[in-house]
Amino acid sequence: xxxxxxxxxxxxxxxxxxxxxxxxxxxxxxxxxxxxxxxxxxxxxxxxxxxxxxxxxxxxxxxxxxxxxxxxxxxxxxxxxxxxxxxxxxxxxxxxxxxxxxxxxxxxxxxxxxxxxxxxxxxxxxxxxxxxxxxxxxxxxxxxxxxxxxxxxxxxxxxxxxxxxxxxxxxxxxxxxxxxxxxxxxxxxxxxxxxxxxxxxxxxxxxxxxxxx
Length: 213
What we know:
By secondary structure, the protein is α/β, with parallel strands linked by helices. It has 9 helices and 8 strands. The chain is 38% helix and 16% strand. The strands form 2 sheets. A 6-stranded mixed sheet has the order 3-4-5-6-7-8, sandwiched between helices. The chain has a two-stranded antiparallel sheet with strand order 1-2. α4 crosses α5 and α6 runs antiparallel to α7.
């Protein structure tokens, strides 16, 4: 539920079973059969969270590549236990605010440098400014497309999907970054997090204009 208040939006989320997801509910054999393991909403998975370092380790031992998007911490604590998960993360995908909170700095480039000491590839989503990334000593930047956003809900997850799609296919990091931006921008052209993707004609026309058809 999205509640507009003056110039700001407040998003009210019903967490459902998110808080109660237990390790015993996971089909580990099924997860191990994948090529890649991605997890988001780290701070909301309160029952699963203590076991996440072990889960990511198991995925790495099974030969999967891994990625993490913590999303926001509603309690604004940004506890250090996330760092024990990052030890087995290949790609870390926070947004600008989340990266700065986790790194303890107000400078996004400083956050990129700090987090890059913990994870091989760090990608920071910067909204209308696009996205930046670092792998070792290599730095990357991709500008956002020029779109008139209708609704930005789901843009970050759409970026993740686009980036990881290309990453799993073995694309160059710059191409992953650019495709993530295309997917994020596409998601903002319709209300809701998935509606822009459900309309095939709209989706294909947008991708053609973005040069990614």
